[in-house]
Design a protein that fits this description.
By secondary structure, the protein is α/β, with parallel strands linked by helices. It folds into two domains: 147 residues, 3-Layer(aba) Sandwich (Rossmann fold), CATH 3.40.50.1370; 162 residues, Rossmann fold, CATH 3.40.50. The protein has eleven helices and eleven strands. Strand 4, helix 5 and strand 5 form a beta-alpha-beta unit. Helix 3 packs across helix 11. The protein binds N-carbamoyl-L-aspartate. N-carbamoyl-L-aspartate binds next to helix 3 and helix 7. N-carbamoyl-L-aspartate (NCD) binds next to helix 3 and helix 7.
Length: 346
Amino acid sequence: MSGAQADFSKQQFAGSHILSVSQFDRAAIEKVFQVADKMLPYAKREKRTEVLNGAILGNLFFEPSTRTRVSFGTAFNLLGGYVRETTGMSNSALAKGESLYDTARVLSGYSDIIAMRHPDAGSVAEFAEGSRIPVINGGDGANEHPTQALLDLYTIEKEQKSQDSGIDGLHIAMIGDLKYGRTVHSLSRLLSLYKGLKFTLISPEELSMPSYICDLIEDRGHELHISNQLEGNVSADICYQTRIQEERFPSQDEANKYRGKFRLNQQIYTKHFQSKTVIMHPLPRDSRAEANELDNDLNLNPNLAIFRQTDNGVLVRMALFALTLGVEDKIEDFDRPVHWFSTKGQ
Ligand code: NCD
């Protein structure tokens, strides 16, 4: 495979790596969302498909993960494929000094597509250079998390639609660790493709959004407001809360300085946001008392979209697998009934 990153503006996904949100334009995003919509009956277990029966996903997670790893695996299983998993750096030959290139050459002989997460920025792209099969970036250090950004955007579109609105003209507040949080980096870049947005970025000064992303937001004509505290009525359509990325700090003491700075609970929400503001978070939310960035008292708030995000993640990842393996128009040809009792569709 060529090491170059495909540009999906012509919507030619088959055989390509997905390494960065920079590969997507609005038409490519729409294509992914159209295919994701078609996946709902499978995710709800109304029917199943065997379109990827026989195909193997190499799911390589060299950094902690629950939902990204499992939802990649589930998405592949839901398309009828098999999943082979490697977790943890210390369990792999990378701990013996093997290069990413060699690991990729070897592992790409064992499966049809690879999803990979790694703690170093740029590592997944470096791995893809050695791979003979498509590689999907499941998060590379503080750099990017393209599939999370796509599922976040898919969720934003759905939530806005339910309020008879769209993404153009949206006001989003991003809160927390905007320096190390790769999800906000990738999501901001995707959102900047739309028109007339307002970004309110709230973080401790030391954890502010990288300047190249702020520049991109402004260069593309959006309004940008930066603050280090929650003040007044933010009047945002979306409030996107994040976790202090403690694993990327030089020390725990350093991370502890910022923990709990931007708690969100029902009372704070009522004070600063509109009653219709949608609350998002890529998860995990740090629920330890000293952080408590998204209080459990918000669980009853109908605008808490965090579990709709996680469900949407399966649909978007199914779509990305279908597109990169070139089966997006064949899914229904391999439909099968579901024989077991399922409560998923209820
Ligand atoms: C995020 C990540 O790993 O970047 N989680 C996820 O993939 N859903 C955010 C985080 O860990 O805080």
